[in-house]
Amino acid sequence: MAGTKLIDDVFPWPEGKRTAVCFSFDVDAESLLHLGFRDEADNKVVTRSEMRYDAHVAVPRLLAIFRNHDIRQTFFVPGWCLEAYPEMVKAILDDGHEIAHHGYVHEMGNKLTPENERYWFERGTKAVEKATGRKPAGFRAPSYGFSRHTLELMIEHGMIYDASMMGHDVPYILKHPRGEIVELPSQRALDDWTHFVLSRDYNWLISMQTPENGFAIYRAEFDAAWRHGGVWIAVWHPFVTGRLSRAEAMDALIDHMKSQGGVWFAPMDEIARHATAARKDGRWKPYIDPMPYNAGVLPELAERM
Predict the structure, then answer these.
(1) Is residue 157 within 8 Å of residue 135, measured between CB atoms?
(2) Suppose 79 and one of 124, 187, 217, 222 were both cysteines; which one would form an S-S bond, judging by CB atoms 3.0 to 4.6 Å apart?
(3) Do residues 152 and 292 lie in contact, with contact meaning Cβ atoms separated by under 8 Å?
(4) In whole angstroms, what is the distance from residue 195 CA to residue 210 CA?
(5) Cα 108 from Cα 124, distance rounded (Å)
(6) Is the sign of the CA dihedral 110, 217, 169, 140 positive or negative?
(7) How far apart are CA 263 and CA 271, in angstroms?
C-alpha cells in the first residue's frame, strides 16, 4: 500500500518480519477489589465472582487459544494472585508463556510514598521469583500508575523492559541517570477496559461495545502497525476478553494476523531482548526518552498559580 512514511524510527524486526504482536494479559483477579474496597471486599460477592472468572475460566480458555495457534505470550500477574492461584500459574508456565511483574495487590505506585512503593514493588518481585523460579524481566504499572521513582526501582532490580508507557509506535528506550531499559509501548485503544468494562463498584460506567465494534479498533490498529512496521501490544484482562463472544473474536483476529504474513508473535521478554541485541550491533538507533520528566510543580505555575 503506497502512502506517506509515518514511522521514522524504523525497527528491525527479526527474520524480515513486518511487525511484532503480543496479546498481553493483566491477570488481576480479586486484587483490584481488595485494594479498592479493603474493608468491604468480602461482602462484594457478585463482583468478586466476576473477578475470579479470570483464574477459573478465562485463563484456561485463553491458553487453549494460544495452544491452537502455537504462540507464546505474556501474562502480567500481581504477586497476590500468583500466591492465590498456583494452579493457574502452573498452567501458564507449562505452556511456555512469560509471567511478568504487575505489582503485589495491584497498587498504583504514583499514589504511594516512595518507601511504600518500594515495599510493594519488592514484595511483588519476590512473588514472581517464587512462582516462576526466576526474576521478572519486565513490569507493567497497575492502572498505569507509574511514578517518577518506578523506573529507578526497575533498573535496580535488573529488569530489561517496561510495558506501561504510550510514547511511541515502536520500542524505545527509557533513560534514567542510573541506567536504561527498553519500553514496549501500547495505547488506550488497545486496552479492553476502554471498550468492554462496565462496573458500578469501580465507577466505570461506559456504553459497552459489541465485540464487532471493539475488535474493529484492534484490527485497524494492527493493520496500520503491519503497514508501517509498528508494534501491536494488547493490554487485556482475562475476565473481560476471556468471555465467550470476545474470545471468539480474539481467535478470529489471530487468524487475520496470520493471514497477513510477516507477523512475529512473541512474549515481551523476547521482544525486549531482540531490541537490546539490535541496538548493540547497530541495527537499531532508538528514540531515547529521558526520565524523570520533571520533579514537582512547573516553575512557571509556581510563580502565579
Answers:
(1) yes
(2) 124
(3) no
(4) 8
(5) 12
(6) positive
(7) 13
* Domain range summary for the chain, segments of one domain joined by +: 14-294
Instruction: Give Dmax over CA atoms of the chain in angstroms.
Output: 60
**H or E stretch including 93?**
helix 86-94
* Superfamily in which the 14-294 domain is placed by CATH: Glycoside hydrolase/deacetylase (3.20.20.370)
In b/e form, how buried is each residue of 106-141, taking b as 16+ CB within 10 angstroms?
Answer: bbbbeebeeeebbebbeebbebbeebbeeebbbbbb
- pTM score: 0.95
pLDDT tens-digit map of 101-148: 999 999 999 999 999 999 999 999 999 999 999 999 999 999 999 999
* Cα 305 from Cα 290, distance rounded (Å): 27
The residues that bridge with 176 in the sheet, in sequence order, are: 179
